[in-house]
Amino acid sequence: MSAVVPQPSDTTLRPPSARLPLVRLEGSHGEMGVQLGRDRASQVHSMIDMYRRLFVQAGTKLGLDSWEEAILHAHKYLPFAEESTPQYVDEMRGIAEGAGAPFDDVLVLNCIEAITSDALHLGCTSLAMGPEATASGSVLIGHNEDWIPEDIHNVFVVHARPEDEPAFLAITYGGLLPNIGFNACGIAQCCDSVYPSDARVGVPRILVSRGVLAARTLSDAIRAACNRRRDAGYNHLIAHESGEIYNVEVSARQFEMLHSDDGMESHANHYLHPRMQAIEKDSGDLVNSRVRLNRARRLMAAQRGTADRHSIQAILADHMNFPQSICNHIVADDTPLDRQQTIASLVIDLSARTMHAAWGTPCCNEFFAYRLEP
Predict the structure, then answer these.
(1) Is-contact 178 168, C-beta < 8 A?
(2) Which of 99, 155, 292, 337 has the most other CB atoms within 10 Å of its CB?
């Protein structure tokens, strides 16, 4: 079965250059934050400005009247983060210092899903194929990061060497902490937004998922994704170089682990486990997610035993159900809260410690290699 690739829509935003910028960080968490903020200051400020405009355009629909109110709400989450993940609060403070931006603004960026009660209905698609499903016996992970289109200008790759955690390679954008990538212990993570009804004030989910990149074992990664003080949760597609692959579906108070016997896992933006489906919010709005997931599963099954990096890239570029396809494009008449497109696409080869990443929609942008250096 071949992927469907029609021409992209005229409204699709293009990246500013072919290759994603690479930012190298090392040292303490605060030092790494300062380095990131200095190197990507324009992207941090661009994201803050863009989100401020979003609050002007759709503030009441976001459940908040102003940016100042967003700051007040974000500070409710800060004590939980300082207690449970103080090292990542240090990273946020460093980003703000390095970029010359108010810490309050960087905090809002990293709490945006929580403080808006997931009013931004955005989605991603993740998949993984273990050694029994790939041509070379490699462990391959694919992910399309679907988000606000204007954030395409703010994406970059991070190569980090924390002084107290494994080195990692990940993508992020603007002033957000990195959370999608893999580390030197052979653990990879992709995050997909899900919509539980039991959200609460707690550790923001971006900080929770940042902690997964610090894990040294698979069980440590899963425990990090299920931080007991979390505000809500993602689906964490977590893969290990051994070929073990899990979807860890998380809400504020519950989690379930899904594991297949055929070496293939995939996920979009709706819960799959019945226990998690029972607490899903707005299930009827997630039809596109179900279509993307079923399409990804069919394409993966057709590649079983022969899959390689290029076939994973082809799945990520698929346009069945265009424009709300795996390769996601802007729908011209969407509201500001619903506008989205794929702003970055990546394929991780855990066996080779390499990530191939495309800036923007993978249908019309080249993948470049980034290696986690020893």
Answers:
(1) yes
(2) 292
Q: What pLDDT is recorded for position 283?
A: 84
User: Which residues contact residue 160 at a Cβ distance below 8 angstroms, ignoring those fewer than 6 apart?
Assistant: 24, 25, 26, 32, 167, 168, 169, 170, 178
Q: Which two tokens stand for residue 124?
A: 């991603």
pLDDT digits (tens, 9 = 90+) for 343-358: 999 999 999 999 999 9
| Dist. CA 234–CA 224, nearest whole Å | 12
User: DSSP labels for 198-265?
Assistant: ---SSB-HHHHHHHHTT-SSHHHHHHHHT-TTBSS-EEEEEEETTS-EEEEEE-SS-EEEE--SSSEE
Residue 198 CB neighbours (<10 A): 12
Report all structural domains of the chain as residue ranges with CATH numbers, in order of start.
Answer: 27-115 (no CATH), 125-371 (3.60.60.10)
Q: Which residue's entry shows tokens 């990273």?
A: 91
pLDDT digits (tens, 9 = 90+) for 132-191: 999 999 999 999 999 999 999 999 999 999 999 999 999 999 999 999 999 999 999 999
Alpha-carbon 23 to chain mean position: 18
* 189 beta partners: 181, 238
Q: Which of 106, 84, 93 is nearest to 176 (CA)?
A: 106
Note the pLDDT tens digit of each residue in 188-199: 999 999 999 999
- What count of other Cβ atoms lies within 10 Å of the Cβ of residue 242? 12
Residues 6+ apart with CB under 8 A from 124: 143, 144, 145, 146, 190, 191, 192, 193, 268, 269
